[in-house]
Every structure is written in structure tokens, then in C-alpha cells.
Amino acid sequence: MQPSLFLDRDGVINRRTVGDYVRRPADFEFESGALEALRVLAGLFGRIVVVTNQAGVGKGLMSGADLAAVHRKMLHEVRRAGGRMDRVYHCPHRPDTGCYCRKPATGMALQARADFPDIRFEHAWIVGDSGSDMQFGLTLGMKTALIAGKSEEAQALAGLVVDGRFESLLEFAGYAAKRLVQHL
Ligand SMILES: [Mg+2]
Ligand SMILES: [Zn+2]
Questions:
Q1: Distance from residue 81's CA to the centre of ligand 2 (Å)
Q2: What is the number of the ligand closest to the CA of 91?
């Protein structure tokens, strides 16, 4: 059985907007190599889902419809490039609400497993650029892959124990392809 892949969005799939949110499709810009990476990963992972914290919705900085438009564009481009995302999960809540879905809480993963019962967390990877992504994966028993680049968390991230550190999603895809999927 192929493993599952959980992907953080900002800083992994698309460029982060530091201190702000990707509010409109025009603001959404893929990271270099990300589309190629997603095409490779589509052949390696049975389920590929996105799990993204988007508190800009809860803060009223963007609407749910804005976010849906951003994700429609993302999915369209990914499909056109030969990639696949089985579903995109987002947490719209502000950090201070104590919701069950904002990473590092695990609500989005539990929802994904309810939607796709073939998902096994112990047979899954999380790829993210934040400490909260790595904690999310650790709590669920996933393998953790940290993408470099979140400078404001650099010190905390340097001390984390993770299963792999990569410069980009494309580098992770190359690693996953080499490692042969049955050993992931
Ligand atoms: Mg991120
Ligand atoms: Zn939430």
C-alpha cells in the first residue's frame, strides 16, 4: 500500500507572504520546482492532502470565498502540471480560539482519515516549514520532513528532531523517489 502525504501549503507549495496572507489568486505563486515535485509525488503517494492554517479568514482579512478561489487556482495548476491533490483542508480560525483544527492540533488529519479511510498515519509523511507542522506529524506518528526557509523560527527549528531536512518540496520528492516507496 502506498503511503500518504500531508502537505503544508505556505512555504512548501507556494511562496509565503511574510506577515500577511495569500488573499487572492493573483497573490498565489508556486515555489520554484513545486509543480514538478507534485507530479513526481503523485506517483509515489496514494493520498496527497493539503493541511493549511489560514487564520486570515477568522481575522476577517479575507473571506472563505477568497480562500476557495486561491485553492481553485492552485488545484487547476497542479492538475495541469500532472500532479494531484486529493483534498485541501484549512483551518480558518484565529490562534486564540483553541479550535481542534489549527496545527499543531490534529483535527485536519482526523478529518482526512475519515474522508479517506485508507490513510494510515504511521504510513504517512508531513512536509512543512514550521514547528507546528512537525509537532502535528509527531503527535500523529507520521514521518516528518522540514523544508528550510522560515527564518523567524530558525532557532527553534534548528533544534528539532525530524526525519529529514530539505531545501524544497522538489528536493523531498527526489528523496522520496530514491528511497523507493515501499520503504517509506
Ligand atoms: Mg508553512
Ligand atoms: Zn481551526
A1: 30
A2: 2
Identify whether 10 is a catalytic site residue. Answer: yes
- Choosing from 10, 66, 129, 133, the catalytic residue is 10
pLDDT band, very low/low/confident/very high, at 179 (cuts 50, 70, 90):
confident
Cα(99) to centroid(ligand 2), Å: 5
Q: Position 73: which residue type?
A: K
Q: 4-114+127-183 — its CATH code?
A: 3.40.50.1000
Q: What is the pLDDT of residue 180?
A: 64
Look up the pTM and report it: 0.96
Q: How far is CA 48 from the centre of its chain?
A: 9
Is 20 an active-site residue? no
Q: For residue range 145-170, list pLDDT tens digits in order.
A: 999 988 889 899 999 999 999 999 99
Ligand nearest to the CA of 102: 2
User: What sign does the CA torsion over 64, 68, 69, 71 have?
Assistant: positive
Query: Which among 172, 130, 170, 134 has a CA at the least distance from the CA of 150?
Result: 130
- Residue ranges covered by each domain of the chain: 4-114+127-183
| Ramachandran angles phi, psi of 112, nearest 5° | -60, -40
One DSSP character per residue, 109-134 reads HHHHHHH-TT--GGGEEEEESSHHHH
Determine the angle formed by the axes of helices 34-42 and 64-80, rounding to 10 degrees.
70
Cell of 177: 523517489
